[in-house]
Design brief:
- This protein is an alpha+beta fold.
- The chain has one domain.
- It has 1 helix and 4 strands.
- Residues 105-116 have a biased composition (Low complexity).
- Residues 85-104 have a biased composition (Polar residues).
Length: 116
């Protein structure tokens, strides 16, 4: 078997339009995916803005606040497709009644996987 030593011989002149068409198709799909990722990112940011600082007051003067952090938002946006995104919810409750004030903290995490 003889293999060409120069890469110019591997792609002949007749295949150039096919390669150009393949690259155009690839670029089209890359653009569509980036658009979907940007849209998804905006939706996630809007939802996080709604729940980022919620305060609940109970009848016993307890103050509960929630803080939500998306640990993967905007970091490596190009790598987000098919990956999971971790979200952490922290709840802190302070009981100010009585002589011994107490504070309770609870943390929950959940993951979502982006499928486009």
């Amino acid at each position: 078997m003889n293999f060409p030593h120069n890469s110019d011989h591997i792609i002949n002149e007749n295949s150039q339009p096919e390669i150009s068409q393949i690259l155009q198709t690839q670029n089209h799909y890359i653009h569509k995916l980036r658009t979907k990722l940007d849209q998804h990112d905006q939706e996630v940011e809007a939802l996080l803005a709604k729940v980022s600082n919620i305060e609940v007051k109970t009848t016993r003067d307890q103050k509960t606040s929630f803080k939500v952090e998306n640990l993967k938002l905007r970091e490596n946006i190009s790598k987000i497709k098919g990956k999971s995104s971790k979200t952490q919810v922290k709840a802190r409750t302070k009981d100010t009644q009585g002589s011994n004030p107490k504070e309770y903290t609870s943390t929950s995490s959940f993951s979502t996987t982006n499928n486009f």
